[in-house]
Amino acid sequence: MDIRSSQQVLRWLVVLGVVLSLLPGQARALSLSLSSREIGEAIRYGQRAQGLPFALFAREWRTEGIQGPGQHLAGSAWLQSPFARAAHAGWAAAHRDLSLIGRDVKRQLEPLRGQLAFAVTLLPPPAHPWSYRVSLHQDGEVVRPSHVEGHQDVPEQGTPWVYLYCLFPAEQVDLEGTVVLVVTDAYGDSLPFVFNLSRMR
Predict the structure, then answer these.
(1) CA–CA separation, 200 vs 168, rounded Å?
(2) Global confidence as pTM
(3) How far from the centroid of its chain's Cα atoms is residue 29's Cα?
């Protein structure tokens, strides 16, 4: 191979490296169905992370809402993928020094087959009306939830918060793309949460 050919190959390798660096990571493919082996791996992942606070343990699946100017609504959301739920079960059991059986976790995952589950914790200002709508957005398409439930807690001391749990039909979502979960309050203010599904398990 002459010098010119070597330089051309080198240029192509540099270009290829740049292109590959721009591609979304595929090592962590989001799956809505886990084998028994994968459930065991997720449980062990959670058990190994037992020393971490929840925010750090769930950082792969958790994101903060993006507040707009003058907006008072704030909060965080986490994608409860099957791997995330199994890992959280392992994390929680390790915190309580409890044993965990993989088949019990598998039974807990069955009702969520074919669904994308999100848990949202909102920190509304005091006396804010408790009325919220949720929707999932991807590439200009809007996916409506198949199920939403929630509750609020107003402690005597501390900050009041609202918890929303919502399910969306996964068949309407590209699991290798990015989705935006949008929570809209009674005043019409929207709080978006961005999830790059290609980088989550």
Answers:
(1) 17
(2) 0.80
(3) 13
